Amino acid sequence: MDTSAEGPATDRLGRRTGPRRRYTLEEKRAIVEETRQRGSSVAVVAQRNGINANVVFGWRRLYRQGLLSGDGAVEAAALLPVTIETPTVVPGEAAPGKEAHRARRRDRGGAIEIEFAGGVRMCVRGEVNRTTLARVIAVLSGR
Questions:
Q1: Is the model's pLDDT at 99 over the cut of 90?
Q2: pTM of the entire structure?
C-alpha cells in the first residue's frame, strides 16, 4: 500500500516524526520568490507550503547572497550616488574650521576601505571601533 499521499507521520502533539523533506533549489527559489511579491507574508507562504517560517527566512538570506541560483551569480544591490554638500555639526560644537577639522582627523585616525566587484571603492574615515565596524558589516551583509 502506497502511503505517500497521506503526508508526513506525526506524533500525538502534531510534530513530524518521519524523515525530513528535501527541497530542490528550484523549489526553494520558487518559495522565496513567492515571499518577495508585494503584500505577501513569509509566515503565510511558509504555512501554505508546510514549512517553518524560520526555514524560509534562511532561504531568503541564501537567495540574497546568490546561493540559490545554482550558477553562483549574486544579485546586484542597487546603489545610489551620494553627495554631502554641508559638513555635519554635532550639537554643542561650533561649525568646524579647517584647523579643527584636521585636528579631529588626526585624533580619530582610522579608515575602512572596501573594494567592490567592478573596481568600485568605498572608504569610511574616522574612528574605527567595534560599533562602526559592526554596522558596516551588517549593512554589507544585508542584516
A1: no
A2: 0.42
Closest among 135, 120, 121, 117 to 72, alpha carbons compared? 117
Q: Where are the beta strands (DSSP E) in the chain?
A: 111-115, 121-125
Cβ atoms of 73 and 66 within 8 Å: the answer is yes
Please report, for residues 21, 91, 124, the alpha-carbon distance to residue 101 in angstroms, rounded to integers and kept in the order given: 60, 16, 16
Cβ atoms of 27 and 33 within 8 Å: the answer is no
**pLDDT for 15-47, tens place per residue?**
777 788 889 999 999 999 999 999 999 999 999
- Distance, in Å, from the CA atom of 96 to the CA atom of 126, rounded to the nearest integer, reads 15
Q: Where are the domains of the chain?
A: 10-64, 77-143
Per DSSP, 5 falls in state G
